[in-house]
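Recall the central idea of this unit: under ordinary conditions, the amino acid sequence of a chain determines the structure it adopts. In this exercise we apply that idea directly, starting from the sequence alone.
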Amino acid sequence: MTKLVLSTSNVMNGGPSIIRRPISEKSNTELTNSLRANFLASKQAFGLTINGDANGIEVTNGSSPSSKSSRDLVSWTSREGDTMFVPSIDFSTSGLSEEKSQYNITVKLFFLPSAKSSERCAHTQEAISLVLGELHVPSIDLLIVSFNGISFDADGDEDEDVEDNSPQEAEQLDEMVKTWETLEYFHAKGIVRQIGLAEFGSERLKRFLPRTKVRPSVDQINVRDCCVVPKSLILYAKQENIELLTHNDCTDILPKGTVRELLGTGENGVHLLSDAANGLDGLKGEVEPQWVVKYTAVVRDRGVIESKGYFAMAEISE
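Accordingly, the structure predicted from this sequence is:
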């Protein structure tokens, strides 16, 4: 098995090739376009360009397309053990322009459908480590976790497919509590100053909070109907001193098909995956996205975003 760590770099430095979504649109457009733009920029830096808007790879060192080797295809990536970085990451060129105290750093971690709940603790550590390395900081101010399969319904407070006391709900709650203990560990170490949740309505919060040592500071919800937050949630959050925030993120922010499209040999791909039909070497196997982490560094006294980006991790079984 190979781990693929995908990265966007700082999307605030991106040119017109990065399409940012309107703030009112719930979409993963920014993530997918930023990943693709960073992939192509990295390939070009190693002498590889894209013909016809990603319809094929041309090796610019004088060789013909038919002589492409696997070395050409992965020269813009790097490996450490069983992990491949797409593209290569050089933390020496990243970082913030001022001291950490001048920024408010928010991180949101999305656990995706393909990921096993037993792997969430390791995934959390991996994601945090990448963000700290990218920004050159020892800590972050707020970490929000988004669990797969949890959605919020403003009309009914919560959208749950099973009854509150069902075995499925109890097992899901146990898994979330176990993951939360990892966040509490990072909080105790001072690596994360505040921790928060996404998509929790009042009923789920009532079941979750008694099992925590560190209460969530934030509950981030997606309100579909004109930002109407249920009164029951407003009152309960106020009682528990939880700040309610809204967002427009996709819960499944990086579907399996999107990853294959980005890495494959199609019109929007970067030809990292193998294509036996066309004689192209590359990675073989099923691609399973595991998590996505989004980070934002805002200058405190100006309210300006200096750095924003994404990391994602997928597994490929060869």
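The CA atoms of residues 42 and 63 lie 19 Å apart.
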